[in-house]
Amino acid sequence: MGADMSRSVLVNLELIGLRAPARRLRPVAAGPFALLSLVVALLPIRPAGLWLAAVIACYALPWLLGLWERRPGRWRLSARGLEHLAADGTVVEAYELSRVEEFAVTADDGVLTIFHRFGATVAGPLAEMGFDLLSFYITARRLGITTHVIDGDRSLFEDDGLPQEDEAPRALGRRTEQRLRDQEAALLAVAHEPRTASRTDTGRLATTTTGRRRTTALGVLVTLLSLTMVTRIALESGVAFGGRLMGGLWALVGGVAMMTARRRRLRSAPLSWTIMPSELRIRHATVGEWRVRGGAVAAAVVGPGTAIDPVSGRPAADQTVVTLFGHRLEVLARLPAHGLDAFQLTHALDERGYHVVTPDQAVPRPSEYGLAGLPEIFSRVPGGRLVVDDDGIGWADGAGDVILRMPRDRIGGMELLTVDGHAWLRMYDDEGDEFLAAPLSMLRISRTDLRDAARRVQLPITDAEYDAYVNAAFYGSMTHLETAEPAKEKPKKTLPEARLDVPTRTRALAYAVTATLCELVAVLGSLWLRADLGGFWPALAWSAPSGLVLGLAGAWLYDRNRPQLRVSALGISSVTRLGRTEWSVTRQALGGVGIDEAEAPRLVVWSPAGRVLRRVSFPPDLTELRRACERHGLPWGPPDAGHGAAPPPEL
């Protein structure tokens, strides 16, 4: 009886790839056809009515091709194997389950490689196939297919990337696979747990849409104006070159305006979630609607996945997707959540009785976290303590003999921090994995002694709190010395944030280079069109000012949204002139700001463990940046840089 039930579950287990809805009309190659309208307008087509019809055809052809475009198929992973189905359900290509020996997915680019008895076949990226990594991994394992997720990209399996015959085989990293196994274990743990809802009311979450209708209306108006101007030019100017040029420019403006308005309308389409303990209702204005019964949902995974791109209508990777699993770990639905706050969505689902699993879900750690990870010899050696020397870090007994040693080439980083008022040490190996976390009182060494000894022998150690303390103390002492009036001190105010941009000389050089290139194009255009415009000098008379204006306007449009560095007491971030934040590193996660000389001199932001968190693509004024970091107490330089100042008392 049990064997029959497991066989029926295996037969019913299948994973269907995502596919765009069929009712949506989408233009094909709207951008190339917009450029084609400019080229067609410049052609000397006679009579003027035929020229007008050719220009307008460039607007209509993308939509006509969209009507004739065949609906894309989808992929299916089931007991029959991996199959590619056409729109009518017929099998286009198939990889039978009995012939597949192993699946391998590279974590960086998500490419699926199928290994069989005759070699290997690249099926393609999982996102383009309509699958997400977690559900594909779980479904393939339940079907009995050996599946591995390899850290890296597809080049790991290329012939050029394989080791030579006389070299030892290299081990492939599988940290991503371990995280997937942890998520699978979490799903199995909550698959049959009873649901307990702390709130029975209805939760509603929706994305904010600002200026969607205005942008659409403006795009439609510009398109209609462009068509009107093209028609007027055809009726008045005939097929003269000046009229053709202006008509082509208006046609290009109209095509770009229509394409931009459509993209804006689809990108900012409202998404709403209605969360009830008994049901989930999701509505996306351009993709579709979903209704899922709450009792059928065993767990919801909130994290990266695959969703339908509203603009292209094809599956694409997304950072926020909710995948619903049933009680047999079958995939019930993959719901879009782009634009919603993941924190609010996760807690809204959890409060209404849905078991939520996140990729970065922290394992509950007791207050004595790290003590269980200490080697047993630590407690067996009487009078044992942590020692630091030129060979690395070791555990010595009462007589000073080192019993256990961690070589310095195996130490990837050390971090000193404060937990519940006590100094702690975290250690990472050369692969970046944490292997030791314990209070310094258990290691019988003070914070100052450990920091000074490690920096003396040049071991990678960071103490962000100490560095911030030194920087703040230095700035406070310098401010006190520079104060002219020793009068009554005013209450301290929060330092204003500092905005750092590229130097003025660099900006002026960018303007000059852009204007020079546009002038060069204007001169070449004058040489090309001199026959149609009455000679070289008349053509240059109107093209040179136009090129200068276009060059300066383009440089200004780029410069007005140039990224800047924002330094404050809360951390460092990159923001544009229009206020959009590109990335941000908080003070707690910041280990240092400075120049990285490893590959090329570049401004980088380090973590306390010495990892490069961000690389700054634009070169700000380094002197001003250093002063801003010191003013706000942010560490300057790599985390393991030595400091000659005397250490303060234990933090």
UniProtKB/TrEMBL annotation:
Keywords: Membrane, Transmembrane, Transmembrane helix. The keyword Membrane applies. Coiled coil: none annotated. It comes from the Bacteria. The chain crosses the membrane at residues 28-45, 51-68, 217-235, 241-261, 508-529, 535-558. The keyword Transmembrane applies. This is PH domain-containing protein. The lineage of its organism: Bacteria, Bacillati, Actinomycetota, Actinomycetes, Streptosporangiales.
